[in-house]
Amino acid sequence: MSKINRIVLIVLDSVGIGALPDAANYGDEGANTLGHIAKAVGGLNLPHLEELGLGKIGKIKGLSSDIKAGGVYGRMAEASAGKDTTTGHWELAGIILEEPFPTYPDGFPDEVIEAFQKAINREVLGNKPASGTKIIEELGEEHIKTAKPIVYTSADSVFQIAAHEEVIPVESLYDMCRKARKILTGKHAVGRVIARPFIGEPGSFTRTERREDFSLEPPEETMLDKIKQAGKPVLAVGKIVDIFAGKGITRYNHTVDNMDSVDATLDYIQLEQEGLIFTNLVEFDMVYGHRRDPEGYARALKEFDQRLPELIAKMDKDDLLVITADHGCDPTYKGTDHTREYVPLLLYGERIKKDYDLNTRVTYADLAATITELLGTEPVNHGTSFAREILNDK
Question: 368: closest CA among 276, 279, 230?
Fold first, then answer.
């Protein structure tokens, strides 16, 4: 089988497309990120994603299912236990987790907090699940007076530490996170320890862009490792470098804004002619999903759709563009958590079949198996490749 030279993989963070069969086990029965956003705004207008076949994967108001798609389309189910960012991305890269990362709906136990307080030689505030913006509003003034860092979590497997940059310098905050990361192992091995610096005065606190994630290392080699070992570049955009703790990555651009991330992806397309460009567009999840803003989410989808022609125009004949997601975060659903959903899968390239339905893949890891086969590297440990099914090399 002749190989693809370069793959551009874009993860639309949290853009789910309907509840998985086991969604009720996660409290997510009936969730549907794309479907419910479309309904809430009176229909989505995404002509370029529609042309790739998005409307043929699931019923989405405003998108037609009665078109000839410009590429391959389908959906993927998550085989791993969990519905968080790390689990989803690791599975996209070829790892299936049998046990979910630990979460702390009642805050962290004494054994964790006491060990952390001893390590940093000061007490903490908070220790509960909370919105990051709300907890600094609630405890920011006390933090400034006492210099006690604010510890909190969410529905995700995260240990987050918020501190005012003028009270605890950012490098000191990072050092606290490194100490927390060493403590949070074994049964308390959370997916990420996150530094959350902020500035401002009581009543007008603002989180800064100097957030830093201290992630667990993947427990086995991913497609990133396989591609790097083959001597090919692995270029990461957005929080990909955090999610994989830097493993298997040859170069990265730690963007946050969706459009900056698209710009960085375009820059990398100009830079390298082979390997993998792996991009995460985090604002769908962080800014619109968790904050339950379907209108803003729809606008962000439209902004990405408008950039798709630029991306496609930069593609060479031996390139493959892949668009997918890592989980859902239905902004019309109860609570503020991720939702356990199928994710869309769109593939486009000159050597890829047109209007071809992949149907439902049983694991995201099928994508990793496909990417490693197409790039001619050693395979990952999980997943079934569909590379031969989608190539149109007649």
Answer: 276
